[in-house]
User: Which sequence fits this backbone?
């Protein structure tokens, strides 16, 4: 996935995906995953309550703005989601159980950004020359 304005892969409230053996280059985001609370959907598709159980393995992320971003309570993955009146975002489901393994993350602005997530696991990745940070975690 090369030269995408928003992301090579972008998914809201998705679960159980495997992303393996790809090249993500010159994108705003290589992989962009986020949760968004939509109460009406929870009755119809209760498993889509958040982003969870992703394996992102053996990929190359080169010269992206953010190689991997996983975030809670977002609108289109990049803007804070406006809290519906009377709802408390602290009770919403947070993205969880994402595995980022054996990837090469090189010359990105940010390697991996996780924002209000649980159990984001980084293992055996190669970080090289990322401009601002290899990993930013906001809890």
Assistant:
């Amino acid at each position: 996935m090369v030269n995408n304005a928003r992301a090579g892969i972008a998914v809201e409230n998705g679960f159980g995906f495997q992303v393996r053996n790809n090249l993500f280059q010159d994108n705003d985001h290589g992989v962009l995953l986020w949760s968004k609370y939509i109460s009406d959907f929870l009755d119809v598709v209760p498993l889509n309550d958040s982003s969870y159980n992703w394996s992102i393995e053996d990929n190359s992320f080169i010269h992206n703005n953010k190689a991997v971003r996983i975030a809670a309570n977002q609108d289109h993955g990049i803007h804070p989601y406006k809290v519906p009146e009377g709802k408390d975002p602290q009770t919403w489901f947070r993205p969880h159980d994402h595995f980022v393994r054996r990837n090469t993350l090189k010359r990105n602005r940010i390697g991996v950004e996780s924002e209000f997530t649980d159990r984001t696991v980084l293992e055996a990745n190669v970080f090289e020359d990322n401009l601002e940070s290899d990993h930013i975690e906001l809890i």
